[in-house]
Structures are given as C-alpha cells and as structure tokens.
Amino acid sequence: MKDSEETKRLFLGIPLPADIIEFLNEMKVANQELGSVRWVPEPNWHITVHFFGDVPVTYIQDLILHLIPVIQSTPAFSLVFQKFLLAPKRNPRMIWGQFAPHESFTKLVQEIRGLADETKNSFKEPKIHVTLARFRYLKSPQLVKFPDLSVSGPMPVTRLTLWESTLTPKGAIYKVMEEFSLMR
Fold first, then answer.
1. What is the pLDDT of residues 89-105, one digit of tens each?
2. What gap in Å lies between CA 39 and CA 28, rounded to an integer?
3. Are the beta carbons of 81 and 50 closer than 8 angstroms?
C-alpha cells in the first residue's frame, strides 16, 4: 500500500435487534452515576466478527466479493446472552454484554480471518460480546451494578454488516458499507 493511498477503517459485525439493545441498555441505566465511564452510543452497539483495519479504497469491492460466498454459505444461527462483565479480567477497561460461545460464530470468524490472510496458528476462541462502555481507570469496580436480568430468548443471527468506522474526538462514527444475509 502506498502512503498516499486513501483507506477506510472497516470491520464486519452482527447488528443487534431492538429487543437486545433495549435489554443491554438496562446495564447503562443501572450505572449512570459512574462518572469516569464513557458509554458507547447505542447505534454503535454490535458484535464484531472481524476488524479489517485500514483497507485501501481500491480493494473494498474485492473484499466484499470475497466475503459474499463465505457469508452466504454460513447457515443462520442464534446467540444466547450470558452475562454482563468488566473486561479484560486483568486491568479492566470496558463493560461488556457477553454471549455464550457458539460453534457457528467461531467457524465464521476463522473463515473471515483466513480471507484476511491472518495466521490461523494464533487463533484464539473469540469472546462473543458487545462493548457497552469504556474507561481508563475505574476507581471502585465493585460499584458497578450488574442487573440481574434475563433476555427473553436467543438472538437470531441472520445477517452481517460491513461498517466503516471514522474516529473523531467525540468517538467513532459508523457507516454501513454493505449488508450480507446468512444462508437460511
């Protein structure tokens, strides 16, 4: 890639249905008094499948063409919400809504990483999650309230979205580049 070549910061993710957003919002509502926490705007909530990073604009259409057969050959599946947590375990900097591991999600992540030419030797089991908030330092992590809630049922995953992420001083702005349907 040439230094002057225009790029777009891209990632592939699972958009969340309104009922899951409403459910996850309960964590935000329960913790409004946490002053040092920067809540991710609800329209930006998603489950990341793969972060591509800066992709040359001239390569984006090729990327989409490579994604189509992989995604369209992946059967639709469902994810089950597991818990709210601080992440990572050591030195937490985020509040997550985590979903239970799922074989179809893991396989999809592996296939997409293969398209991106990333080494498969370093593959770790993905943590299926939505980042709800970020913070640099949380003085009293024990003050975080974890609502005892249960979601009504599994979340169907029937489509993926390729988003462009533009970083601004006020946070990331996401723009839909392409939407893909999984096999039904």
1. 888 999 999 999 999 99
2. 7
3. no
